[in-house]
Amino acid sequence: MSQQPANVHDHYHAHIYFDNATAEQADSLRLQAGDLFGVGVGRMHRQRVGPHLYWSCQLSFDRAQFDDLIPWLERHRNGLNILIHGRTGDDLADHTRYAYWLGKPCPLRLEVFT
Predict the structure, then answer these.
(1) Which stretches of 1-114 are DSSP H helices?
(2) Residue 102 CA to its chain's centroid (Å)
(3) Which CA distances in Å does 7 have to 41, 50, 61, 104?
(4) pLDDT, tens digit, for every residue of 21-67?
C-alpha cells in the first residue's frame, strides 16, 4: 500500500505514465493541468527517461498548487498511474521516501541515483 500524497514539501513533480494506447489521454491531462492550475508542463517522453521504466510526462508545481491539483488529478486520471514526489534535492529520497502514487505504484530504476 503506498502512502497518500501529502503537502509537506515546497516543490513537487508529478510523472504521468502512459503507453501508446493512453498517450492522447496523458497529453490531454497534462495540458489541462497546465491551463487550469498554471503548473509547469513537460514534454511527452515516448521512451524511458531517468528512473522511469514507462513513458511519461512531467508536471512541476509547488505547495500552493498542491491542494487543488492532486485531487483534480485523482478525479481525472482515468486509470493512468501517476508518481508524485517532493523535490528536496535528494533524488533518491524524492523517488522513495517522498514518493506518493495515484493509481498503482510502478517500479523505478533507482540505481540511476547512485
Answers:
(1) 23-37, 63-76, 91-95
(2) 9
(3) 20, 24, 11, 20
(4) 999 999 999 999 999 999 999 999 999 999 999 999 999 999 999 99
Q: What are phi and psi of 96, to 5 degrees?
A: -125, -80
Count of CB atoms within 10 A of residue 42's CB? 18
pTM over 0.90: yes
Going along the chain from its start, the domains and CATH numbers come out as: 16-113 (3.30.70.1240)
Q: Hey, what amino acid is at 24?
A: E
Q: From CA 104, how far away is CA 57, in angstroms rounded?
A: 17
C-alpha cell at 75: 478525479
